[in-house]
Amino acid sequence: MNTNNRDILAGASTATRLPAQDLDRARRFYSEKLGLDPVDELPGGLLYRCAGTDFVLFRSTGASSGTFTQMAWEVDDIEHVVAELTRRGVVFEDVDLPGLLGGGHTSNGIAEIDGNYPSKGARGERGAWFRDSEGNMLGIGQLVF
Fold this sequence. Notes:
- By secondary structure, this protein is an alpha/beta fold.
- It is built from three helices and eight strands, in the order E-H-E-E-E-E-H-H-E-E-E.
- It has a four-stranded mixed sheet with strand order 1-4-3-2. Strands 5-8-7-6 form a four-stranded mixed sheet.
- About 20% of the residues are buried.
């Protein structure tokens, strides 16, 4: 293996790892609130798959700070997803940050973010955030073209 290549990781897949102090509680949250069930599990963690990408909840004695987005789903209809998750009991964060349109805060749980970061040719995105049962900050995003 040639370790001098700059693109050594470019062909590797990525997977998010989220800490969970209580895997049973986390499993219930992801199943009941998000409609997700693990595709594989070991005593130390749960593997989830969404649209061909993986994320893992792993048993941890530490907790996430929950002060930043740790993982997000990209959706086509953010209003529908936020409404359905709210119906299931997910509580969305009221975010008030510089750079958000509409006065820098969320409206009905959704923020307008212009030019947030390079996003597949989009000019920005609409976003919403919530915490899972373990305090991990998760997001829902819809690209704006």
